[in-house]
Specification:
By secondary structure, the chain is α/β, with parallel strands linked by helices. The chain folds into 3 domains: about 80 residues, Orthogonal Bundle (Glutamate Dehydrogenase, Chain A, domain 3), CATH 1.10.285.10; about 130 residues, Leucine Dehydrogenase, chain A, domain 1 (Rossmann fold, 3-Layer(aba) Sandwich); about 150 residues, NAD(P)-binding Rossmann-like Domain (Rossmann fold), CATH 3.40.50.720. Helix content is about 50%, strand content about 15%. The protein has a 7-stranded mixed beta sheet, sandwiched between helices. A 5-stranded mixed beta sheet has the order 1-2-4-3-5, with helices on both faces. Helix 9 links the parallel strand 6 and strand 7. Helix 2 packs across helix 17 and helix 15 crosses helix 16. The protein is globular and about 60 Å long. The two termini are about 35 Å apart. It binds NADP nicotinamide-adenine-dinucleotide phosphate. The site of NADP nicotinamide-adenine-dinucleotide phosphate (NAP) has 24 residues, from helix 9. One of its GO terms (cellular component) is cytosol. GO terms for molecular function: glutamate dehydrogenase (NADP+) activity; nucleotide binding. Homohexamer. It holds the Pfam family ELFV_dehydrog_N.
Amino acid sequence: MTRIENSSFGKEFMNNLINRNPGEVEFHQAVHEVTESLLDFIEDNPKYKNAKILERMSEAERIIIFRVPWVDDKGNIQVNRGYRVEMNSAIGPYKGGLRFHPTVNLGILKFLAFEQVFKNSLTTLPMGGGKGGSDFDPKQKTDGEVMRFCQSFMTELSKHIGPNTDVPAGDIGVGGREIGFLFGQYKRLRNEFTGVLTGKGREWGGSLIRPEATGYGNVYFAEEMLKTQNDNFKGKIVSISGSGNVAQFTAEKIIELGGKVVTLSDSSGFIYDADGIDEEKLKFVMRLKNIKRGRIEEYAKKFGVEYHPNERPWKIKCDVALPSATQNEINKEEAELLIKNGCICVSEGANMPSTPEAIEVYLKNKILFGPGKAANAGGVSVSGLEMSQNSLRLSWTREEVDAQLKRIMQDIHTTCVKYGKNKDGFVNYMDGANIGGFVKVAEAMLAQGLV
Ligand code: NAP
């Protein structure tokens, strides 16, 4: 029986949430996970319950939904839907990425925005939480089509964001190219050169290490978890899913630390390279994905390794699994397979890649499990550092930013241990991240009155 099922407050809260947000299953899942962690803590601290902090935190401060019309290369009119979920601004301006993917809907963006509030709080930086995007699919579109879409999207979004209000960044389908088009249009509409977006190019206000930050940060976090067992990445076999921004720089850091990366994937399938993906092969992946915008299958053809179409990489034996593609990409059976094959650590580069049943398997087997809101907070942390540099009109060196990123990931790890360590010494990082993230936001909300 779950903690929620054992608590009348928990049951009533979740029933209300589901009734008020029908059909938004990913949002229900994200709130359910947090509530499981928080229930005992809230019972022990009635000030949060009395002030209905959890009820308020699971209701967005503002949601904007808008039409995005644009013209494709053949002259046809296309219509997409745009969103921005401004979830919580108790500790700073709304901050969180934009996702362009055909699966995007309101429920998915609400789950991501809700997670982002806790994640941003954990970073120690002053950032509230938000998320946005569109059901637009940049795949198979020309640069001109992507630009026209981004310009139309920003024409509406620009009315709702600003460097002191809401500062979006990239996410799935939104990389350097898209941020450039979005920034250019914002600047044109507002006649302002400000830090309104992060993930900008180096020449126009971007921070060094921002592209690397989520992947590197996840590896730093996993390294801290391994350290608690006097272990490290040297010689470890590592499975990574995805082959986008997060996956690429996760692989880069693992290779640097002496681990062996054996898998990468995309939404069509995964590759298994038993010899390990080395620096040269990774360069091929970066060119393939970032410039050619091709499929991961081409890696298998180029290097003569196994390709598994329409499958995920979790059946491959590994010591550490770093899911870095999308939500709900490891289910119960796959989690059981990972553990059966000797996996000792799962650290989430993606947001909510493990289903609740998979998480139960990790916790039951007491492996090291780093939940996304802690483990992948490196991206938004360096986004926060990009905002600081923009305000100061300064650029820090690669070494300075990397050192700050590492320190932040170590601090997040310390917070997780502080709030997640059980009496038997086992650290439940999920409880630690949820409670640690909650306290700061909840205290700010209490101090600010009924907001
Ligand atoms: P990305 O560069 O667009 O790469 C996404 C990768 O995941 C691609 O390989 C993509 O394959 C795969 N993928 C996407 N949807 C999928 C699906 N439904 N099934 C299977 N594979 C799928 O995005 P990213 O920035 O690396 O983001 C990856 C994950 O990290 C997301 O969960 C994101 O929310 C999270 N995250 C990102 C950041 C950041 O700074 N970028 C920060 C924190 C968390 P296809 O190309 O075939 O679609």
